[in-house]
């Protein structure tokens, strides 16, 4: 007996109104400006229902009417757009050498973008919680001063995160079994908004998919270029987390059995061969995490001057990176692999050798159509993805109370 | 501006009735026996609509009423089940050493299962088309004699297949740019039923996901253990083909830079290190493809007698296989990796070393919960998946005409 998992799905009608509010909200997100008649025609909801749903969403200040009218025969229709001026979604990323915070409105427009140096590799989890809570509180009070209600906070962490927001292991932060979500909720004194914790690469992939310049792409892999190397996997237009949420650990796949030791305890991992650490171990051995950004700038400066030692080093790291990209290309056949973090400033020297290696190692001719590019979001990707995850909850029907 | 791709989706209302017929058909597939009232309650369709849709499906002999009634208060309800007795879906697999054909009814019950030796590695594409057409014709006439209408034919091939059913490259068959679908349609003289061509590993993964004993698993990787090694990737309950349909080429990921040459022209690929060829190159060098099955039996016989040379060989191949499984586990975090084909009889000696290697190489503790098992479908997997793909079309709303 076949159990079919494909084909059309009827909606779950347990909460029809919440579902339909979300359907209308999403339709306007994707098609604004649009009229009530457009919504009815495209969703199959009847016009009276659409009017009632739209009234509710206007009431919640999630939609608003514009002065615009549709240019067509017959009675002119009032056009709708997303409002969301009274709302903000917050994303924070904590990493080995920095904390980033962003806030976006309901439309995804960036309201704020802060980056602070942070000694993630030496700070204790408790110190990290204090630092994240401090920056989150400052963002929340800024948003409150702007009369915005905070829809939620998501924190991005480079590690394996379980479904409850606990960090199972974060090798480069040195964390094991830290209840980050629980500790943050305490530090923020049980805030009214929901708090989530998620993997940095997963969130960055979501941000890249939504905010990046990739057009109709529905299969994308994002590779973080921080001290740690991880991937976020988008297939068929959705983040694919795997069975237990641990997908994307490309950084700890062996790409060179005789390669250097990795912080995870193995050897020749992609992260050890082609992470930022593999470059700085040669140019600035023993560098403090807090100096990372400065040292990467120094590498860029020397590469620009055609320093032969640096060019050879970047070529070799690019080839190592290409081995990892080839693994993703063979197994996942993405349309684009996006390199993030410190790979962005180093891209001009890494992309060509990485691409050559990827093409050589792909069974499908031309890498199966896989393009290799650097992120246009740079270090904001994970935090932006974290904020987008808050918007996802809203789009899925968890609407804020009327303001 | 965020374009949201998550959350609830309104149905496409361009062909509401076809969509709703498919929704009802799938509901009965998953919940039979069930009543019209059950369908209405769960799908949100109103009772009059459900009655009309059910009447149509009974008319097409896709559903039938049973004598059963629901045991409940009030008027007894007539129960519905899938009918499909007048239908058959056909799947054929062509591989290096055999052709397999299966037929299933609408419920997925196997009606027929044939396996024939076939010299795939030496036969020309034209000879393969003739052989596939011949077996397909014999299956079709058998089904016709049983008064079944053929819903479609899907052919599984170990290679990169494009969306039109042309084989881009099939390394172990020695094929390049063969218009297999076009040639087959000609050889079958424009049959009334649709003909599709798809990758063997993808189809086997679908079969394993549907027919295999994996319960609630929604993330599964199937690894073919034929002369070629390929994977089919199921994530979140659907086959994930990647951007151009070339996902799952795990067999040509380098797992040992100093490993043996691969048929694809590279070196140290998983297929070269841990494919069946890597075993037979040692036990039966120069074996003809047509003798493969016999030679694998011979390896099993010697392993059962604790032949130390064979045990060492299988341990080493198992470790190589584990490297590939670890790559899938790190990148995709499947709940189960299913080994198919000749890995099934060799499983008792391959699983333990492969699992040990996989656990050692996974960043997530315990391999991220990934279980390593052999297929219970053995060599039928790809052909069964091919037949299931025909049923998918029906479930997606491409219903057969009234018989």
TrEMBL record, chains A, B:
InterPro entries in the record: ATPase_NBD, HTH_MarR-typ, ROK, WH-like_DNA-bd_sf, WH_DNA-bd_sf
Record-given protein name: Xylose repressor
GO molecular function, one term: DNA-binding transcription factor activity
Pfam family, one: ROK
Superkingdom, taxonomy of origin: Bacteria
Signal peptide positions on this chain: none
Family the entry assigns: Belongs to the ROK (NagC/XylR) family.
Domain HTH marR-type: start-end pairs: 24-65
Species whose genome carries this gene: Planotetraspora thailandica
